[in-house]
Amino acid sequence: ESGVNEIEEVVVTAKSKSDGQENISSTDISLVKISIEEAKLLPAIGGETDVLKVAQLMPGINRGSEGGTNFFVRGGDGDQNLILVDEATVYNPGHLFGFFSVFNPDVIKEMSIYKGGFPANYSGRLSSITDIRTIDGAKNKFHATGGIGMLSSRLTLEGPILKDKMSFMISGRRSYIDQVLKLVGQNVPFYFYDLNAKINYNIGPKDRLFISSYFGNDVLDVSANEDSLSGNFGFKLGNFTQTVRWTHVFNPKLFSYLSLIHTRFKYDIEGNGFGSSLLVRSAIRDIGLKYDFQYFRSSELKFLYGVQVTNHNFKPSVINTTGEISDYLKDKDAKLITTFETNAYADVRYDITSRWKIQAGLSLPTSITAKKTYLGISPRVNTTFIVNENQSFKASISRMYQFMHRVSSSSFALPTDLWYPVSENVKPQIADQAAVSYNFYFPRLKSSLVIEGYYKYMQNLTEYKEGSQIILNDDFEQYLIQGTGWAAGTEVMFRREKGRITGWVAYTLSWTKRHFDGLNGGEAFWAKYDRRHYLTAVGIVEINKRLSFSAIFELASGARFTPIVGQYFQPNAGLTDVEIIPIYSKRNAYRLSMSHRLDINFVIKSKPKKNPRFSSEWHIGAYNVYNRATPFRIKLEPTTDGKYEYTQPGLFGFIPSIGYNFKF
Q1: Coil vs helix vs strand at 477
Q2: Measuring CA to CA, how many Å separate 585 from each of 447, 531, 560, 562, 661?
Q3: Residue 190: what pLDDT?
């Protein structure tokens, strides 16, 4: 007699190695991997999870101003970091003047940051490569995740289009501080929004296609009203990227990846009133093709090779005026500047013995401009010596080229920043970096220790001449000068990745200097973000299945600045008055005070169910718990005895936060 017997399901699991264990035998060096699930548990300003701020807690990655997403890696400048989302370049990674990143944490699958030892398939920047890959979308069931925070809300939808063959993901986010302040009678017409979308299609057993896109804008719109002067002012800036990628399997040993990539970044600043109007616009657009191959000759020998071609189109500064203002500021329709950047590369990873491993690569980056062609030769070598299964030594050397730079009038990510290519007179930037590391894994503690030292020498760095006029200018080259720089440091990181208590302690001791013949009297000077000491401690405690606690402590040397150390008086040209002439110190000779801060966060999850269709969690935390503001700028103020002194106002004090996340 036939019958049906229902038995319990069988689950097969395997113990996967942690990143710390993988690092012992890997040839990767100076690589940081950001855990997205871990990042979502950490405290943040306003409760808004920001992966770039988590990256700033890693050794060798130095934050710029407090709360900003701009970062400086191993003595490099902010424009020397290549940020990729599904292989497309993101030129402006910040929202809200750089205080929030453009990356929605709900759509990020993995994030890796290379500070050195760069694989040969990466090129175009000197200091770091941030490679972000987004989720593919669920193939079997529909899912939705989202969150409501103090400053913004987000919603992500994913699911199958054709079950097991085609899936989609779409995610949107918008800030609403402008709407909240309206309720209390305040008008701050500034907001940001962004949208991620992706389609993932398994064409067959050997072919796969995905289409990924990002679109985001920051919008300021100040309209005339009865209480203000007659006129309107506003700006809009944002990124737009698309990637179409086709993966093909020729055989079990040979794979290919063909990508079409489009990137656009632009800003518009508009104002009108009193019979005049002004429009300032800048844009950069990239259209690229990338073809990669992976060949697995054996388990000990692997090859990666390919070519990438990118057409850069720059419109540095377009200025349109009407009315009376046109008598002072003329129209300037900036010419389109086109350059072609190529990179042909090959990379091999070879296990010489069970203990010795090597990764060697060579890339040939090229930039073709209107009047000159630059060809670079960029070798990279990483080697690993495995002492035993828990410890190893590593070393690397690499050369990187950069064929564009960011023209910035401020340390903020202001809308007046723009990108400008190399030319006949402006040479490409070059960096040579060497690094060594010791790696140890503690099996019982499930923890890893990495001690790393580096030295970097940089050529053709770009700065401005003293007294340069940058804003509303389209002839930048006359103000640019180029020089050299060097950076050296030691990084220590102890990290625990598994268990009820996880987190890390990271410390960086570093030096970085610049030398330009036309600056500081021709003497070398400290870089602005030369922070001698930088310490971070991050802890996450799983109190029980529903409650967890996390905290961040940060201690950092202050940024450097050039103060006024005296004044003298000089008669004016008509001998009718006197002018006060300031006397400055050597460039960046002083630094702001050392800062420290503590942030905390509690996560309260919904009651677990056997078959949960809906789950949620509350985030309750605080930024800068003991209200010690980090020096943000300097201010010269008179004292009661007729002298002057510098004060260091901070930006953020104690900021409580609350957020609600859900998933179904």
Answers
A1: helix
A2: 46, 19, 12, 6, 51
A3: 85
